[in-house]
Amino acid sequence: MPAAPDLSGRTAVVTGASSGIGRAIALALGRAGAHVFLAGRSQAPMDETRKEIREAGGQADAVVLDVRDVEALRGLVERAVQDTGRLDVMVNNAGLSYPGDIADADPEHWREMLEVNVLSLLVGSQAAIRAMRAAGNGGHLVNISSIAAHRRDSGVYGATKHAVNCISASLRLELEDDDIRVVTIMPGAIATNFARNFDPAFLKGLAATAGVADFEPQAGEKLPDEVLDRIQPIMEKLLSKPEDVADTVLYAISLPQTVNIEELVVRPAKALAL
Ligand SMILES: NC(=O)c1ccc[n+]([C@@H]2O[C@H](COP(=O)([O-])OP(=O)(O)OC[C@H]3O[C@@H](n4cnc5c(N)ncnc54)[C@H](OP(=O)(O)O)[C@@H]3O)[C@@H](O)[C@H]2O)c1
């Protein structure tokens, strides 16, 4: 990775910053000097990230919110602008998957995926565009999609990521005359809590591979950090690190506004269908 850009004096908002990819992005932006506003559902990991950013000399604030709450998400963006006078980077990262056959699925799971992966990305993008236009400094929208958007048969989760790509491309066109660039990042398989809704038997096997024998996963429960930390190096050909995506974000936002990085795929050496 080339030297990190100097983001001193810049402001960034990251949704889904309490875990995985969003957490790594928030940390990378904060270490590079940006004032980062983290949003997620879990306070403790965001407090840890905020501490790490502050220890590195940066500034960070953390807000517990549900991104499906339109007013709360708008309020976060407004707060970032009120506190710092600007907004330079909006990372729409919060997202989740409920894998499984459509015929057997719970419609509430479809609703959650659509609301978190698609609607909150729209609300976050709109709030950020308005804030960036008002501040007049331009900016970057970073939308976290998935390689699932490259497949036609990637289920309801994949459909939400097709929507993310379509929305991002539409925004890119809409914002051509603003100094606001829109980059879509499509990760492949990354070792994170994204797996929390996967089959518990599969997760138990994964934990055993990582040498954690006494883990009894419950549907929806986060994986212990030690499982994620151990499994990634063991399966490094199949699973990337959240930091790999964070490096990509730093790259995309560090280029001049005249450079339009539209889409980036970040995946491990070997393909693992998600
Ligand atoms: N990991 C992969 O293999 C992979 C591959 C391609 C794309 N992606 C995408 O990458 C993004 C980040 O996922 P990840 O892998 O980092 O998974 P993760 O570790 O589970 O993190 C997801 C983040 O989103 C937050 N979140 C979920 N629902 C939310 C809601 N209603 N309100 C507020 N925050 C919410 C979570 O908060 P809490 O943890 O506090 O609940 C967490 O901070 C997602 O958009 C995902 O689709 C992941």
Please explain how this structure is put together:
Helix content is 45%, strand content 14%. By secondary structure, the chain is an alpha/beta fold. It has 2 domains: 11-190 and 241-266, NAD(P)-binding Rossmann-like Domain (Rossmann fold); 192-239, no CATH class. It has a 7-stranded parallel beta sheet with strand order 3-2-1-4-5-6-7, sandwiched between helices. The relative contact order is 0.14. NADP nicotinamide-adenine-dinucleotide phosphate binds next to helix 1. NADP nicotinamide-adenine-dinucleotide phosphate is lined by residues 16-22, 40-42, 66-68, 93-96, 116, 144, 146, 187, 189-190, 192-194, 196, 274.
Structural class assignment: alpha/beta
Q: Give the number of domains.
A: 2
Number of strands: 7
What is the CATH architecture assignment of the largest domain? Answer: 3-Layer(aba) Sandwich
* Helix count from the secondary structure assignment: 8
Mean pLDDT value: 95
Largest sheet: 7 strands, parallel
What strand line-up does the widest sheet have? 3-2-1-4-5-6-7
CATH topology of the largest domain: Rossmann fold
Bound molecules: NADP nicotinamide-adenine-dinucleotide phosphate
What integer value in Å does the Rg equal? 18 Å
Strand content: 5-15%
Spell the H/E element sequence: EHEHEHEHEHEHHHE
Query: Which runs of at least 5 residues are low in confidence (pLDDT < 50)?
Result: none
Tell the overall outline: globular
